[in-house]
Amino acid sequence: xxxxxxxxxxxxxxxxxxxxxxxxxxxxxxxxxxxxxxxxxxxxxxxxxxxxxxxxxxxxxxxxxxxxxxxxxxxxxxxxxxxxxxxxxxxxxxxxxxxxxxxxxxxxxxxxxxxxxxxxxxxxxxxxxxxxxxxxxxxxxxxxxxxxxxxxxxxxxxxxxxxxxxxxxxxxxxxxxxxxxxxxxxxxxxxxxxxxxxxxxxxxxxxxxxxxxxxxxxxxxxxxxxxxxxxxxxxxxxxxxxxxxxxxxxxxxxxxxxxxxxxxxxxxxxxxxxxxxxxxxxxxx
Length: 285
Ligand SMILES: Nc1ncnc2c1ncn2[C@@H]1O[C@H](COP(=O)(O)OP(=O)(O)OP(=O)(O)O)[C@@H](O)[C@H]1O
Ligand SMILES: [Mg+2]
What we know:
Elements: H1 4-7, H2 15-18, E1 24-33, E2 41-51, E3 56-60, H3 67-74, E4 82-87, E5 90-91, E6 99-102, H4 114-124, H5 129-142, H6 158-170, E7 176-180, H7 188-205, E8 208-212, H8 216-222, E9 225-229, E10 236-241, H9 256-271
Parallel strand pairs: 3-8, 3-9, 6-7, 7-8
Antiparallel strand pairs: 1-2, 1-4, 4-5, 9-10
Helix pairs in contact: 4-5, 4-6, 8-9
The protein binds adenosine-5'-triphosphate (ATP) and magnesium ion.
């Protein structure tokens, strides 16, 4: 696996040659919480999607529509009410292994330093540690964490803890990355930096990525496809293909095609009634 610093020079290779990731199928997945209770709650309507090996797919949707619920089921950490997740054609029957996970709640172990939290991924799998340590060192540097390696989670800021959680997801270069708002606690500039790093990493390693974000700009900047979810109980109501070369500019204004895609997503939200604005126009008059 190339170090992140090497990844900078690597151009996106044609899809089929370079893809290392697995094929993920989400097959009519549904979730009802409290099925046996008096008031069951439907969190996710039947949802299907296929993510091809090495494809980067984002999910956007209003708060509470079921994005994290969907992600937890894809990771095999939450039992679906109906439907199935298939990894390379095989139905997932427990927690996914060989996956990098960066979720909304970055669950770091309090009694381990930032670096120990990241290296634990290799320790658990009994891997030779020298390459894991080197990769972790490069990631810490790229993510602006070099001085944080020996600190404990309670000694880190929220944004730093989230970056440690990202480093943990990326350290083994897994074939699948499941990311749920992984940049949510980052300040605006770090967020751009980490997004750039993720794009570079994806271009060199080509994992299959399922990425949940509230940021339309991030979704169109990073993805091959964007899935748009309806308000709760959510399902996928639109799908946009973003066929633009990489690396892509970090701001929408720099690339009219990106801005057009973002506008299409906002228009979907407008039609779905997600944005309440008392007659104010969504786009400039
Ligand atoms: N364990 C649970 N028990 C009962 N209801 C739940 C549970 N987990 C989630 N929900 C409900 O399911 C719905 C979807 O939650 P989910 O966390 O998937 O939303 P989300 O789309 O990720 O929202 P956000 O963008 O705010 O993160 C919400 O109404 C939430 O309250
Ligand atoms: Mg969520």
